[in-house]
Amino acid sequence: MKREFVIFTDGAARGNPGPSASGYMIFENGKKVAEEFVFNGSKTNNYAEYNAIIMALERCKEMLKDAEECSAKLFSDSELVVKQLNGEYKLKSQDLRPLNRKVVGLAAKLGKVEFENVRRENKHISEVDRNLNLLLDSR
User: Fold this and answer.
1) Which residues belong to any copy of the RNase H type-1 domain (predicted)?
2) 129 with 35: CB under 8 angstroms?
3) Which residues are within 8 A (CB) of 119 and not within 5 positions of it... i.e. 6 or more apart?
4) 38-53 tens-digit pLDDT
Protein backbone atom coordinates (compact mmCIF):
# COMPACT_ATOMS: atom_id res chain seq x y z
CA MET A 1 0.00 0.00 0.00
CA LYS A 2 1.32 3.42 -0.92
CA ARG A 3 0.73 6.11 1.67
CA GLU A 4 0.48 9.79 0.79
CA PHE A 5 1.70 12.46 3.17
CA VAL A 6 1.35 16.22 3.01
CA ILE A 7 4.00 17.92 5.13
CA PHE A 8 4.41 21.50 6.34
CA THR A 9 7.76 22.53 7.82
CA ASP A 10 9.26 25.68 9.25
CA GLY A 11 12.37 26.83 11.01
CA ALA A 12 12.91 29.96 13.06
CA ALA A 13 15.95 31.72 14.48
CA ARG A 14 16.20 34.88 16.53
CA GLY A 15 19.48 36.21 15.34
CA ASN A 16 21.51 34.48 12.69
CA PRO A 17 22.82 32.46 14.42
CA GLY A 18 20.69 32.68 17.52
CA PRO A 19 18.15 30.70 19.50
CA SER A 20 16.38 28.53 16.94
CA ALA A 21 13.61 25.98 16.61
CA SER A 22 12.35 23.56 13.96
CA GLY A 23 8.95 22.01 13.48
CA TYR A 24 6.56 20.20 11.20
CA MET A 25 3.03 18.92 10.77
CA ILE A 26 2.25 15.82 8.71
CA PHE A 27 -1.18 15.12 7.24
CA GLU A 28 -2.55 11.94 5.72
CA ASN A 29 -6.01 11.80 4.14
CA GLY A 30 -6.66 15.33 5.38
CA LYS A 31 -5.97 14.49 9.04
CA LYS A 32 -2.98 15.56 11.08
CA VAL A 33 -1.05 12.39 11.96
CA ALA A 34 2.11 13.86 13.46
CA GLU A 35 3.68 17.10 14.63
CA GLU A 36 6.84 18.03 16.47
CA PHE A 37 8.52 21.25 17.56
CA VAL A 38 12.07 21.26 18.94
CA PHE A 39 14.55 23.81 20.26
CA ASN A 40 17.85 23.63 18.36
CA GLY A 41 20.03 25.89 20.48
CA SER A 42 22.03 28.61 18.74
CA LYS A 43 21.76 27.91 14.99
CA THR A 44 21.08 29.77 11.75
CA ASN A 45 17.63 30.07 10.23
CA ASN A 46 18.70 27.92 7.26
CA TYR A 47 19.86 25.20 9.66
CA ALA A 48 16.45 25.35 11.40
CA GLU A 49 14.65 25.08 8.04
CA TYR A 50 16.70 22.06 6.92
CA ASN A 51 16.37 20.42 10.34
CA ALA A 52 12.57 20.72 10.19
CA ILE A 53 12.55 18.89 6.85
CA ILE A 54 14.88 16.18 8.15
CA MET A 55 12.72 15.68 11.25
CA ALA A 56 9.55 15.41 9.15
CA LEU A 57 11.02 12.93 6.66
CA GLU A 58 12.45 10.80 9.49
CA ARG A 59 8.99 10.74 11.09
CA CYS A 60 7.41 9.67 7.79
CA LYS A 61 9.93 6.85 7.57
CA GLU A 62 9.05 5.76 11.13
CA MET A 63 5.34 5.67 10.26
CA LEU A 64 5.86 3.35 7.29
CA LYS A 65 5.75 -0.38 7.74
CA ASP A 66 8.60 -2.42 6.26
CA ALA A 67 7.36 -2.87 2.69
CA GLU A 68 5.34 0.33 2.43
CA GLU A 69 6.24 3.16 0.14
CA CYS A 70 5.00 6.68 0.25
CA SER A 71 4.72 9.80 -1.75
CA ALA A 72 5.01 13.11 0.02
CA LYS A 73 4.45 16.70 -0.88
CA LEU A 74 6.49 18.90 1.45
CA PHE A 75 5.73 22.60 1.78
CA SER A 76 8.16 25.14 3.24
CA ASP A 77 8.24 28.92 3.26
CA SER A 78 12.02 28.86 2.75
CA GLU A 79 12.57 29.64 -0.93
CA LEU A 80 16.31 29.08 -0.54
CA VAL A 81 16.04 25.59 0.93
CA VAL A 82 13.30 24.44 -1.46
CA LYS A 83 15.17 25.71 -4.51
CA GLN A 84 18.39 24.09 -3.27
CA LEU A 85 16.59 20.76 -2.84
CA ASN A 86 15.03 21.08 -6.30
CA GLY A 87 18.41 21.88 -7.86
CA GLU A 88 17.40 25.41 -8.88
CA TYR A 89 19.91 27.13 -6.56
CA LYS A 90 23.49 26.12 -5.93
CA LEU A 91 24.40 25.03 -2.44
CA LYS A 92 27.14 27.49 -1.49
CA SER A 93 27.26 27.07 2.29
CA GLN A 94 29.55 24.26 3.46
CA ASP A 95 27.54 24.08 6.70
CA LEU A 96 24.35 23.18 4.81
CA ARG A 97 25.85 20.48 2.56
CA PRO A 98 25.51 17.60 5.08
CA LEU A 99 21.92 18.66 5.84
CA ASN A 100 21.08 18.80 2.14
CA ARG A 101 22.61 15.34 1.58
CA LYS A 102 20.62 13.94 4.50
CA VAL A 103 17.34 15.30 3.09
CA VAL A 104 18.12 13.90 -0.37
CA GLY A 105 18.97 10.50 1.15
CA LEU A 106 15.81 10.36 3.25
CA ALA A 107 13.66 11.40 0.30
CA ALA A 108 15.17 8.64 -1.84
CA LYS A 109 14.37 6.03 0.81
CA LEU A 110 10.75 7.15 1.10
CA GLY A 111 9.88 7.12 -2.59
CA LYS A 112 8.56 10.20 -4.34
CA VAL A 113 9.01 13.43 -2.36
CA GLU A 114 8.22 16.80 -3.90
CA PHE A 115 9.40 20.06 -2.35
CA GLU A 116 7.31 23.18 -2.86
CA ASN A 117 7.76 26.74 -1.68
CA VAL A 118 4.68 28.44 -0.21
CA ARG A 119 4.08 31.81 1.34
CA ARG A 120 4.35 32.01 5.10
CA GLU A 121 0.69 33.06 5.18
CA ASN A 122 -0.29 29.45 4.38
CA LYS A 123 -2.50 28.42 7.32
CA HIS A 124 -0.47 25.31 8.16
CA ILE A 125 2.91 27.06 7.85
CA SER A 126 1.50 29.84 10.06
CA GLU A 127 0.47 27.26 12.66
CA VAL A 128 3.93 25.67 12.69
CA ASP A 129 5.50 29.15 12.92
CA ARG A 130 3.21 30.07 15.83
CA ASN A 131 4.26 26.93 17.71
CA LEU A 132 7.94 27.63 17.07
CA ASN A 133 7.58 31.17 18.39
CA LEU A 134 5.81 29.90 21.51
CA LEU A 135 8.68 27.45 22.03
CA LEU A 136 11.29 30.19 21.58
CA ASP A 137 9.34 32.53 23.89
CA SER A 138 9.41 29.87 26.62
CA ARG A 139 13.24 29.75 26.61
Assistant:
1) 1-139
2) no
3) 77, 125
4) 999 999 999 999 999 9
